[in-house]
Every structure is written in structure tokens, then in C-alpha cells.
Amino acid sequence: MAKTERRADHGDERLYALRHSTAHVMAGAVLELIPEAKFGFGPPIADGFYYDFDLPRPLQPEDLEKIEAKMREVATRDRPFEQRDMSVPEALEFFSARGQTYKVDQIRKLAKEGADRDSDDRVEGGKVSIYRHDGFVDLCRGPHLASTGEIKAFKLLSIAGAYWRGNERNPQLTRIYGTVWPSQSELDAYLQKLREIERRDHRTLGRDLELFRIDDELGSGLVLWLPNLSIVREELETWWRKVHKERGYTLVYTPHIASEKIYQRSGHLEKYGENMYGPLLLDDGGAKTPGSSFWIKPMNCPGHVKVFQSRVRSYRELPMRIGELGTVYRYERGGTLHGMLRVRGFTQDDSHIFCSWADAQDEIGKVFDLAMEFLRVFGYSDPKIYLSTRPEKRLGSDELWDRAEKALADALAVRGVPYAIDEGGGVFYAPKIDIKVLDAIGREWQGPTIQIDLNLPERFDVTFVNAKGERERAVMIHRVLFGSLERFVGGLIEHYAGSFPLWLAWEQVAMIPVRESALPYARGVAERLRAGGFRVHLDDHVADMRGRIKEAQERRASYMLIVGDKEAAAGTVSVRRRGSREEERGVTVDAFVERLAQERDSKALPPDFAAHRASVADSLS
Questions:
Q1: Whole-prediction pTM
Q2: What is the spatial distance between Cα 468 and Cα 505, in angstroms, rounded to a whole number?
Q3: I need a labelling partner for 166 at 20 to 30 A (CA). Which of 155, 333, 468, 609 fits?
Q4: What is the pLDDT of residues 145-191, one digit of tens each?
Q5: Which of 24, 352, 479, 600 is catalytic?
Q6: What is the CATH number of the domain that holds 480?
Q7: Does the active-site annotation cover 301?
Q8: Among residues 350, 359, 439, 539, which one is catalytic?
Q9: In angstroms, rounded to a whole number, what is the distance separating the alpha carbons of residues 179 and 617?
């Protein structure tokens, strides 16, 4: 069985065993229906399970129904799950005789290495563990239920592709996803949640609302921001810059490519080279000379170090806070790309704070406060704070790691913030504060992160002149709020189900004149609103009013203003909010403009947004 990281949403031991056992029952059912099937790994995962198969033909959706039916037969038989150990030679002979080449590959790997770091499988005393139920046998260490009869409420969900061992140079297998719960009511609640997730899918909304496009001719993993979503981005960037200038950040721009010398010095070529695009060779008279190779930047950090080092810095200039909305490019496998959420080119709101150790805790605290304020603006709830500590493989001395972890922990302690320790969860060059939040339907998203970089200040000899006139190593705090703008906005589309708050909405007001005689008045109101900085769509094609209201709702206009001769005579408008059937009549234009300005400037969440509240579905995991 492939290893899957145990997280809280995998459930307790009982739920984990239920998912694990159901995965085995599914694999047995596939093998019974398609005897030529060869099976790979099949772990429990968050909210369910999957199994990978090498099959003689592609699966169709109707195949899932047949597999489910066979699984129910096996569950009804109430067969026990039985564990036993096999010697390595016996196991090789057993699985070879059955043509299970992927299991043979795994056993040989275990025999050579003793254990597989990507799975729970291992060799102990020259033996491997197997589990059997109803004639199906798999290499596995458990845990499992006592018998198949304990499996009641399950559903197969989808078919996907996956490479053996996750390596695109290996054969591509067919992956079947499923979910299972202790009771039918819990399964029903989970399936309802899946339907809501599907309704909010940013790829579907992105197409229907004309927000973004991934064009194959332009390149996979590269996002075209269409006009509607470009407005959202412009508003976000304008607000981001304003907030950072108010907090003493210096905003900079750094190049999109850089010499390989800087990435050799930073360690990116050594540690991250497989995720970088390059090298680009400059025409240097036909001969390659040192420094003539360039790479497309995967991160903004080295550029910010060079900004800091553009001259000698005094302690009086610290802390120096550098920020950039910098576009970077990273290689992602084609199979991992997912709309705006996983891309190859994205803009990251990197900021680096250069300070002394004496100021580090205070600066970390200020970043944390800003991150909390930032999340509240967008209606994200229930932040979970993690302090991710040193991994086994890391750069830097234990003394530096002690100091960095203490600064992060103290910044949280001063604020009385409850947090969990993610032991070993830091990156190789930095401990970090991770903030995770729930969206409107209770899904967890990675939010802002705050790190103390223990790598680049050493590699680049980042120093300042202290009060004694001596060179002192600077502390480098690395943080993001948006992270990737593409991923953040893709998440916002799903969080808001496409219905953005007024300050971000591409169409804030739809002007709908009832008849042609009201058009001049409608144009005047529209101009008044545009003068106030509002985005207005004037529907001057007088036709069926209900149809035009429906179209405005479908465009996700925040407000619809309906005007006729009566409103023109009185200098008023009839107001309908997005998503509402109620119409407020006799509102003066001045009163509406004032209301709109207050909602926009306060960045209020719209009435049709429902923040996440704990529900039955949340208690399932």
C-alpha cells in the first residue's frame, strides 16, 4: 500500500481502517471483473481512498457501477481481513505467478532497500506483510477492519490517470477514487458537499463568467486573465500596494531572468534546478563564457537580496521591508496542472524584511497581524496556526535554528495565539509560521506563511553596519500574503462562488431602463456613478425587462438599477441586489451613491456571501 500522510482529515484510527479496507475491497472487485488487471498502490486519503490499476482497456463511468455492485456483494459476504507474513522469495513467487508485476517491483525494491520511504511497506526478518480477504491478496501492513461486513456506506467517485510511483517516465495507470463513511447519512452529507464544490469549481465559473482561459497554443499552465478577472486583479494589486506603503514597505521590481551565477550562489540550481526553466544561452561570439547562461526566475528572493546589497546598509535603515508583485516560472508536471490553482507561471507577492535579531520578533508579529487582517477582509474563517520546525535535512547550525524558532514562537506567544507544532515541517532553509484557513464551504486552504531564511543571508553574506561600526549578519524574514495571485484568485472564485464583493466586482451596477423614454435619465445616472469611480453597465437595448434582469444576475452584477419614467420624474431609482427578488423603490440617486461608496470603501462582504459555519459535513472527517 502506498503511504499517505496522516492528517486530521483522514479521521481517527477506525475511520482510517475503514477507508483502507474499502480500498482493498475495491481492488478485489476490479480484479474479479477484469482478471487481467494489475494493481499498484491504494491508500486511504483525506475523505476516502483510491487504487491504481494497469488495465487492458480504458474504464468508462458505467464500469464504476459494476465495480460498486461487486463491492456490495463482497461486503454482504462478511469475509474476514486476515494478515500473515511471507518470506521475500515466497512473496516474489506468489505475485509473479499471478502476473502482478507492480507488486513484484515493490518487493524487489524492499528486498534491496529494506523499506520504501514513499510507502509503509518494509521487510522485517526477511518477511513482508500481506492481507487477504475473499480470495484477494495484497502486499500490505494494515490497519484493516475485522471483516468486509463492516463496510456499509461507500461510493466510487471518479476515474483519473496516474504514473507508477508518481514518475512520468513510468507506465501510466488508471486511478479510481472513492469515499466511504460509517453511516449513510454521513455519506449523503459528504456527497452534497461534493456537489457544492462542483458548483463552485473555478474552471467552470471561469468559463461561464469569462474570467480566465488556459490556451493550449499559448501553453499549458499559463493563465490568460480575461477583462472581467483583470479588474479583480487590478483592485487586489492596488489595495496590496496601498497597505504595504502604509506599513513602511519599499516596493521594487526585479528582472524575469538572471545569470546562473546568482542561482548557483543561492543554491537554487542545486536544490531546485529540476523545477526551473533554462538555461538560456546568450550569443557570446559562439563561445560559452562564465555567466553567459541565464535562467528564468523561480523565486524573487535573490533579487531582493541584491536590492538590499545595492549599497552598504546602516542599522539606522533597519528594518528594511522590501515587497514585490513578481512574476515567476516553475516547472510543474502536466498531470498536476489544475486551472489557476496549479500553474507554471504566476505572480507572487513576495516580501523580505531585513533586520537585526533584536527586531526579528517584533517584525514577525507585525507580519502576523497583517496576515490576520488580510484574511478577515476576504471572509476566510477559523485560521489554524502551525509552527513548522526544523526538518531532518537542513542548512544552518542548531544555534541558528534555535534562535529562529524562538523568534517565531515568541511572536505568537506575545499575542496569545494558540498554535500547533508541525514537527519537522519547516523547509530545509527555514522554520516558518503556516496559517491555514477555511473557505465558505469548510475546505482548508494554505494561507500566508512567515519564514526566517537561514540560507540566503549566509550564502550572500548579507550584512549591515551595527552601532559599533561592525558588520553584522542581517536576519531575513520571508513572507507571502496572497502567495500566488493565480492560486489565490482561483480560490476566491470558489470561495465566493463567482459572486465577488462590490469592491472587486467587474460589474458593480447594471442600469436597466424600463423603456426607451427612460434612456436619457439612465445615461445620466450611469455617468454620475462612473464619476464616483463605479463600474457601470448600461443596458440600452430596451427589450424584455425580466430577461435583462436575469442576464445581469448571470453576469454577477452587484446591483441592478431599474428606472422608468416615474423614477426619471422623481430623480430616484429602484434597486435590486444580486441574488434577490426584492426590489427597493424610490431610492434617491444621492442615497444610493452614498450607500455604494460605503460598501465599496469598507470592503464589506456581500449579502449573498455566507461565511463557513460548522456543519454535519465538517464532523465527518
A1: 0.87
A2: 54
A3: 155
A4: 999 999 999 999 999 998 898 888 899 999 999 999 999 999 999 99
A5: 352
A6: 3.30.930.10
A7: yes
A8: 350
A9: 13
Average pLDDT of 58-83? Answer: 94
Among 103, 321, 344, 348, which one carries the catalytic annotation? Answer: 348
- Furthest-apart CA atoms within the chain: distance in Å: 93
H or E element at residue 203: helix 202-208
Residue 529 sits in a domain whose CATH number is 3.40.50.800
Q: Which of 133, 390, 478, 479 is the catalytic position?
A: 478
Q: For 356-369, what is the mean pLDDT?
A: 96
Q: Is position 14 annotated as part of the catalytic site? A: no
The C-alpha cell at 565 is 419614467
Give the C-alpha distances (Å, rounded to integers) separating 333 from 270, 296, 298. 19, 17, 15
Beta strands in 194-281 (DSSP E): 212-213, 224-225, 249-251, 257-259, 277-281
Expressed as residue numbers, the domain containing 586 is 509-601
- The candidate with the shortest Cα–Cα distance to 601, out of 242, 211, 251, is 242
**Alpha carbon distances (Å) from 559 to 266, 497, 499, 536, 553:** 51, 17, 12, 10, 9
Q: Please enumerate in sequence order all residues whose Cβ is within 8 A of that of 160, keeping only pairs 6 or more positions apart, or say none.
A: 174, 175, 177
Q: Are residues 245 and 376 in the same domain?
A: yes
- Give yes or no for residue 4 having a pLDDT over 60: no
Whether the CB-CB separation of 436 and 384 falls below 8 Å is answered with yes
Same domain, yes or no: 124 and 43: yes
Question: Three-state SS across 497-541?
Answer: CCCCCCCCCCCCEEEEECCHHHHHHHHHHHHHHHHCCCCEEECCC
Domain boundary among 144, 160, 182: 182
Task: Establish whether 70 is a catalytic residue.
Answer: no
Check whether residue 292 and residue 351 sit in a common domain: no
Q: Which residues pair with 381 in a beta bridge?
A: 438
Residues 229 and 358 in one domain: yes
Q: With respect to residue 331, please indicate whether it lies within any of the assigned structural domains.
A: yes
Residues 133/28, Cβ–Cβ less than 8 Å: yes
Q: Does residue 350 carry a catalytic annotation?
A: yes
Residues 384 and 435 in one domain: yes
User: How far apart are alpha carbons 127 and 356 in whole angstroms?
Assistant: 55
Check if 330 is active-site: yes
CATH of the domain at 150: 3.30.980.10
Tens-digit pLDDT profile for residues 266-285: 988 888 888 899 999 876 54
Is residue 352 annotated as a catalytic residue, yes or no?
yes
Helix axes 589-601, 519-531, angle to 10 degrees: 40
Choose the catalytic residue: 301, 394, 479, 487.
301
Please state, in angstroms and rounded to a whole number, the distance separating the CA atoms of residues 131 and 86. Answer: 10
Residue with cell 442615497: 591
Domain count, the chain: 4
229 grid coordinates: 478577472
Secondary structure of 478-491 as H, E, C letters? EEEEEEEHHHHHHH
Measured CA angle at 271 (ends 269, 275), to 5 deg: 70
| % of residues, the chain, pLDDT over 70 | 95
Q: Which residues, 6 or more positions from 399, have their beta carbon under 8 angstroms from its beta carbon?
A: none
Query: Per-residue DSSP letters for 429-443?
Result: TB-EEEEEEE-TTS-
Q: How many residues does the chain have?
A: 621
Asked whether residue 608 is assigned to any structural domain, the reply reads no
